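> example.struct
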């Protein structure tokens, strides 16, 4: 039996065994643990250990001490999550082998209205540093956002529109960090002030790096030979610099009725695409948002949530100092929902949403015509929880209209997404759930109408205006168990399988146009299956320090009727030995990523596996101030990501010393 199949079989066995063990020890005491509450998607509150699909949460404290990185790179160590890893400035999350238009990136539950899904060299115009928390959802938890969340959701939640007044009339954070591998400096500041009813916020962020150092030459020998170039022996990843700044402000009126507020954010971002082609991207976005929550007592609902936003986005590709292709995206969106939350055994939401987006590409390499996308949707989701067991289900219907005056294209897509599942609690500290989801996605303007060269990815891209909607069927088995035998043990496991009809994939045709290889979007059938496991146990105490071990593993397999799914991530195993207590918080982390040398698409090249180690420590100078230091990639090993379309020309950073300070006031 191959290693992946062996790992899958062993993991399923452990999954079943731990569920049975959890049920058998139902009466054993378990220490009280803080309960994380997830509200994204459903609108009503659900504790993280009672969800029927996999959800990850990063809190503000965790984000402040994370490496300065794009959204994809920041999340890449979570099980089932990878980064597109095109360049440090352009790293979009990939969830369970799916990315692009199947992974929805949100800001406070609203679309970011950018062009990051259009191409892997396009960045998400949002810094993780501005987030109060980041939620990553898969499966039925993402249902309320429709087909474009067919792979999952990454929701960056900030506090720019405050829903509560600070207890002492003000609060804020100053976070600073520097890194040796890229001479990087980052600073962030935010403040919330006002005892109510008026509360004001302000935040600012700046991040700047040079080209980063690498342990081996960036371009592989096969790459330079194919290009007919002499090997580059430089110890720098050329064109990998970043220069980003955000400024934002908000105001809320808070009272017994709830709250209502308005916010503004301006982003300016200049970054290199890391491939040695002289292409950099100059990005700008202005965003306005309004949001409110209103307490009520009507027809079983106790809250009305409403949001609206407008975004004006543009970026230009700078080629050897000259202005190249420009991409512009303007859009507005609204979302409103009635919420039944904490009202007996039933929780639920009923809502509607709508958006309009105008997209335009200007220049000789404008490979997508100007388009307008309009979408209107209605959704509902309900959960019945009887304590020992429960049911959850929901549905969403969307009408998406895409028009292009340049090509006389005008078409409506009607989509239906739905889910249903049930769960059972064998004990107070164990949970098992099974859910079935049907998701339907309308093709994007790029997949339908692309026809031209794109310098950022060095491809000539062609779409197909006759595409039908993409339909996915997913089945997921979820389990959470907490057991206490002298030391606490917890395990969280997810096994899933998905089948797609009319799966949209980008494949080479073998032709060459405009001196670039031609890639065309095609529709095929596809199947994916995989698993994600996280386990934690307390090992022992050493003075004031509690020593614990965290283990996580993920595996995904993807196949279409025309071959393997492109850039499927290899399996990965992460071990983290943590020490917490008193003023110190430290960990030593080892991560192994398997090689990907078989089951490749015809044009893909193999990727070697790697094992890397990181060590981190944080010390509280006083209760509100922490100093931290980290050495990443201690062994200075070569790391190339199988999920990256530039893996033969871009290698991850080498050994990096990172130091920082966080002050909360």
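> example.seq
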């Amino acid at each position: 039996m191959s290693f992946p199949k062996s790992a899958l079989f062993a993991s399923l066995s452990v999954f079943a065994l731990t569920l049975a063990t959890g049920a058998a020890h139902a009466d054993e005491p378990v220490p009280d643990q803080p309960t994380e509450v997830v509200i994204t998607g459903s609108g009503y509150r659900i504790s993280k250990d009672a969800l029927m699909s996999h959800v990850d949460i990063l809190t503000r404290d965790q984000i402040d001490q994370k490496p300065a990185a794009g959204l994809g790179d920041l999340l890449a160590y979570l099980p089932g999550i990878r980064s597109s890893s095109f360049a440090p400035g352009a790293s979009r999350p990939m969830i369970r082998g799916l990315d692009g238009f199947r992974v929805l990136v949100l800001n406070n539950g609203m679309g970011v209205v950018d062009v990051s899904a259009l191409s892997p060299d396009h960045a998400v115009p949002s810094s993780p540093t501005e987030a109060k928390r980041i939620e990553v959802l898969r499966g039925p938890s993402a249902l309320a956002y429709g087909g474009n969340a067919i792979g999952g959701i990454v929701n960056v939640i900030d506090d720019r529109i405050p829903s509560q007044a600070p207890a002492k009339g003000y609060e804020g954070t100053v976070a600073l960090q520097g890194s040796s591998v890229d001479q990087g400096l980052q600073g962030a500041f935010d403040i919330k002030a006002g005892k109510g009813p008026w509360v004001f916020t302000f935040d600012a962020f700046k991040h700047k790096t040079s080209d980063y150092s690498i342990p081996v030459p960036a371009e592989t020998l096969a790459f330079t030979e194919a290009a007919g170039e002499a090997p580059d022996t430089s110890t720098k990843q050329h064109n990998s610099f970043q220069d980003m700044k955000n400024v934002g402000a908000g105001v809320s009126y808070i009272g017994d009725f709830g709250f209502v507020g308005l916010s503004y954010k301006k982003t300016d971002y200049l970054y290199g695409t890391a491939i040695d082609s002289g292409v950099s991207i100059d990005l700008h976005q202005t965003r306005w948002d309004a949001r409110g929550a209103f307490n009520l007592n009507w027809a079983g609902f106790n809250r009305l949530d409403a949001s609206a936003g407008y975004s004006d986005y543009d970026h230009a590709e700078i080629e050897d100092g000259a202005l190249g292709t420009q991409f512009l995206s303007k859009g507005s969106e609204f979302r409103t929902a009635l919420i039944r939350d904490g009202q007996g055994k039933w929780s639920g939401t009923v809502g509607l949403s709508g958006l309009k987006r105008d997209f335009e590409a200007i220049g000789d390499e404008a490979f997508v015509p100007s388009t307008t996308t309009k979408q209107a949707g209605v959704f509902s989701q309900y959960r019945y929880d009887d304590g020992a067991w429960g049911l959850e289900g929901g549905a969403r219907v969307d009408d998406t209209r895409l028009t292009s005056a340049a090509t006389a294209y005008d078409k409506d897509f009607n989509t239906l997404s739905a889910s249903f599942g049930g769960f059972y609690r064998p004990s107070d500290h164990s949970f098992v759930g099974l859910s079935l989801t049907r998701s339907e996605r309308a093709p994007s303007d790029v997949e339908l109408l692309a026809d031209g060269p794109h310098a950022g990815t060095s491809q000539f891209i062609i779409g197909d205006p006759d595409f039908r909607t993409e339909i996915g069927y997913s089945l997921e088995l979820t389990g959470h168990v907490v057991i206490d035998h002298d030391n606490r043990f917890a395990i969280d496991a997810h096994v899933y399988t998905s089948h797609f009809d009319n799966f949209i994939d980008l494949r080479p045709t073998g032709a060459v146009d405009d001196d670039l290889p031609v890639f065309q979007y095609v529709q095929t059938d596809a199947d994916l299956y995989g698993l994600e496991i996280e386990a934690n146990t307390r090992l022992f105490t050493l003075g004031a320090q509690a020593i614990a071990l965290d283990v996580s593993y993920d595996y995904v397999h993807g196949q279409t009727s025309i071959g393997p799914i492109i850039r499927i991530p290899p399996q990965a195993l992460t071990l983290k030995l943590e020490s917490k207590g008193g003023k110190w918080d430290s960990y030593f982390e080892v991560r192994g990523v398997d090689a990907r040398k078989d089951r490749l698409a015809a044009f893909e090249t193999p990727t070697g596996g790697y094992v890397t180690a990181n060590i981190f420590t944080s010390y509280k100078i006083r209760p509100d101030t922490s100093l931290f230091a980290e050495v990443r990639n201690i062994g200075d090993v070569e790391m190339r990501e199988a999920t990256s379309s530039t893996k033969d020309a871009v290698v991850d950073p080498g050994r990096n010393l990172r130091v920082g300070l966080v002050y909360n006031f």
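> remarks
Helices lie at 3-24, 60-64, 71-75, 221-227, 445-449.
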